[in-house]
Predict the 3D structure of the following.
Amino acid sequence: MASSSGTSSGSSTLMQNSGSEEDLQVLMDERKRKRMISNRESARRSRMRKQKHLDDLMAQVAQLRKENHQIITRINITTQHYLNVEAENSVLRAQASELSHRLQSLNEIISFLNGSNGGNFDDDQDTSPAFTEPADSFLNPLNLAYLNQPIMASADNMFQY
């Protein structure tokens, strides 16, 4: 009987070992399942962070493109204003040159008329002879037709000379 009691107690120990192994396996499977769920949740959060970062970067790209477009527009407007002012300056330079040339011509005419006896002089002034308007309007340089022409200078006809 002693052998039967040994066998029965050996068999119950085996059942207990087998039960604890199954419990251990179930416990390990449960931990594995929880870890897998936790990893999936972590991966989901990581994907969400990555997507949010990507969305933020896309919004930043859109904002920078908008700012870049505005800057380019302002540069184009400023360049156009610069070109307009440059053209106007060219016209003004041409007009100033033409007026300077006319003034020089008028001064030459006055010098010529003062140098010759064609004009009337005031005899009262001995220091510098002053030119007075001659009686004949043909000799009056202010009545000459070319002097009454308007100054016509523009960027279009500036380089025709």
In short: The first helix runs from residue 2 to 115.
